[in-house]
Amino acid sequence: MDWQECCDKRIAKDVKLDLPLIASLIKSSANKMKSENSLMISEITAASKLSLAYDSLRELLEASALKKGYKIYNHECYTAFLKEVIGESVKGDEFDEIRKVRNAVNYYGKSISTEETTDIILKIKNLRNFVNSLLK
Question: How many CB atoms are located within 10 Å of the residue 34 CB?
Answer without folding.
Answer: 11
